[in-house]
Amino acid sequence: MDELKVTNQNAEQMLEFVESFIGEQLTIKISKDSCVAAFPLLFRVVEKLAAAKGKKLTWQGLDKTSRQLLGYLYPSDLTSLPRDEELGRRKHQIKFPVNFFSIFGVLKNMPKVKPLYSFILLPILFTLLLIGGFIYLKNKTWAKVELTVSSDQLVQDFDLAGKVNLEPDDADFLPLTLIENSGKKKHQIATTGEKVVGTKAAGAITIYNKTDSDKVFKAGTIVSLITTEDTIKFLMDQEVNVPARKIAAASAQAIEYKSGSASVSVAAQEIGSLGNLAKAQNFTVANESPSSFVAINEADFGGGESRNVRVVTQEDYSNSQSSAKALLLEEGVAQIRSRMVGDQRLEQQALQSSIINTEYSHKVGDETDTLSVTLDLKIRAGVYSEQTLKDMVKQRLEEKVPDNYSLTDDPISVSVENVTGSLDQTLYFNCRVKGFIIPRFKKEELSRSIVGLSLSSASDYLKSLRGLSSIRIILGSPIPFLDSLITQGRLPSNADSIVVEITSQ
Questions:
Q1: Taken in order 186, 192, 193, 199, is the CA torsion positive or negative?
Q2: What is the pLDDT of residues 315-328, one digit of tens each?
Q3: Which fold has domain 2-92?
């Protein structure tokens, strides 16, 4: 009978020895450090190889550990063991370490398993642990669904009434705070009126009466220069009586007459040098024909001159007052704004002003290059809280939101287009309000609708909803680097593990 001593380094040599052994009886001795002790499966491999060759194989342990191992594998062979080792082998059982199972918090005290069955139970238990761990991690998966909805602008016009002194039943009125300011200002402007001033030309004329009757001409009678150009007119300074003509000589063939005459002073009707005439000019008198009455100046007319000057007009009065009022309003509004607090807001159209007193430096028609005005002005303003205004119009805007829509959290825009009414009673603010609305979604219903769906199915469902512009789904697990393995591309089966976030653009 041949013997072979097996160590941890000669497993291949052992197999070759069995393969080439030509005897009938073979004994293989093993120790606790041998390759067979480390890999018990080699027992079966060697036995099958020996059986195929028709050899009888016997195992022998060289130490206590190796003999116990042989006892586990070959319980019927007890005769070669010492008594104490035999009893120890019969009583020997395997007990799994508590720490191995305590990592899962279960099976802390495993029952003792007979050595023969441990090789079967260990893989089964390990598989069960893997399955249980996978189920545990699967139930701990989570999903984050980020949805972006398209917003539409909602524009509405509202009339909002405001009052200074609110009564208890004036809840629908915008509260106004009255701020007053008074100011006085002297303002000067250049006059715009133009006027020609000067003196009139004057002189004396002799009127000749060629009729047979005396003629009286009253003061102010017009005497006109006979020219081919524009007629220059003069006015008589006083009344004059011009006697009728007389017979100067008579004969059988003819009678000669001498015209009656009278002298009178005249002055030009218009100022200026145009009336300065040389002597011996012929004039018509009133509406009389030159064949009946004619006048001649026997000396030059003189003294006429003219010049253009600036004078005050009624328009200058209005312009100077408007300019002074505008300056006072600007200064007064600045004073009012300096007294405003918080988010108080002032609309220019909510200003009311009244002129207390106006004084001018010149009268209308006075010759001057400038006009000064002193103006006393009182300004009253009704200011309001911008946030209060927004809150009031937002309530009205919410009433105009279509069904299945809601206002976004974006701040609304309010512009006051016009203000009418009176501070003493009620001011009416015409407001244009702009806000954004989005489709209304219930996050809980969305979470329940996509429970357990695959990523593609969940995306298809969400895309079918009206108003969504972008969809992003993030899956996660307690072990980030195994997310894809654990989640398997599906959303959690528990709606509470799905977080839905909705934003607007």
A1: positive
A2: 999 999 999 999 99
A3: Transcription Regulator spoIIAA (3.30.750)
